[in-house]
Specification:
12 helices; about 260 residues; globular; Rossmann fold; about 10% strand; five-stranded parallel sheet; alpha/beta
């Protein structure tokens, strides 16, 4: 059998996981593979998963290919190899499979204000449903119809699922129950954006590789975003409040999490 990952980025989506993978992959001693099933011609994201997400531990069809297949993706002379699949953290089955297969793997978990994460996911879905994109979750509204409003999106099945992804306290507790705490490194998106070098040096130290100046990741410009209503933000803050208290108890009363609750 070939190599297995030394680290995994298991979540959360829309919290900077792609930027983290890119900055880690730019390190001379780190390698992250691409998705071998990625089809650049297929723009339907419901069927064609992201270019750098493997989904091995959370999808039974991938899991059934066997660990030999998975390990073959990490052939490299790099000091460390790893991968990013944000859906792992949302599946206790995936986390248990990881723990039994790679018990000493290190996890890098990224979080972002759950309301901002949810709003970002909403805009991601809207972009997927533009007339130039394949049929998406907002299909049937007509090409000339205005995009679905955020409040309307929250009432859809996708909206409910997206909200659940932001219940970090719930998902983290599962990860902490399965993995030793010293194998998990938490990164807050707000701090990574403001103090990228500091955050990445801490990640390099956690992984045990040379602490070098991190690569600069270009930020995508988002034009024409529909603003969130103040009353909607307040309602979401109340809905997330109980989970945020649970999260605070897991992250040593982190001041960033406290600001989320203000």
């Amino acid at each position: 059998m070939g190599r297995l990952p030394d680290f995994i980025i298991p979540g959360f989506s829309r919290s900077g996981t792609s930027s983290m993978r890119e900055m880690l992959d730019s390190h001379p001693d780190i390698f992250t593979p691409g998705n071998p099933d990625f089809d650049p011609e297929n723009r339907d994201r419901t069927k064609n998963k992201p270019k750098f997400e493997l989904d091995f531990f959370n999808e039974d069809k991938k899991w059934d290919r066997g660990i030999e297949w998975y390990s073959s993706l990490f052939e490299s002379d790099a000091q460390l190899v790893g991968e990013k699949t944000p859906r792992y953290l949302l599946s206790s089955t995936a986390l248990s499979r990881i723990a039994s297969t790679i018990p000493h793997v290190k996890l890098i978990i990224l979080m972002r204000n759950p309301i901002d994460r949810l709003f970002s996911q909403y805009h991601q879905f809207i972009r997927r449903d533009s007339p130039r994109k394949p049929k998406g979750i907002f299909s049937g509204r007509g090409e000339d119809s205005p995009p679905m409003q955020f409040e309307e999106f929250l009432e859809t099945e996708d909206g409910h699922l997206s909200f659940e992804k932001g219940r970090y306290g719930h998902w983290l507790k599962t990860a902490f129950d399965i993995f030793p705490r010293n194998q998990i490194h938490l990164v807050f998106n707000e701090e990574m954006a403001a103090k990228t070098k500091k955050v990445m040096l801490e990640v390099f130290r956690f992984l045990g590789v040379k602490e070098i100046r991190p690569a600069i990741v270009k930020k995508r410009k988002r034009r024409g975003r529909i603003p969130m209503r103040d009353e909607t933000r307040q309602k979401l803050a109340e809905r997330y409040r109980s989970d945020s208290f649970d999260l605070l108890s897991l992250v040593d009363e982190n001041e960033i999490v406290r600001k989320w609750m203000e």
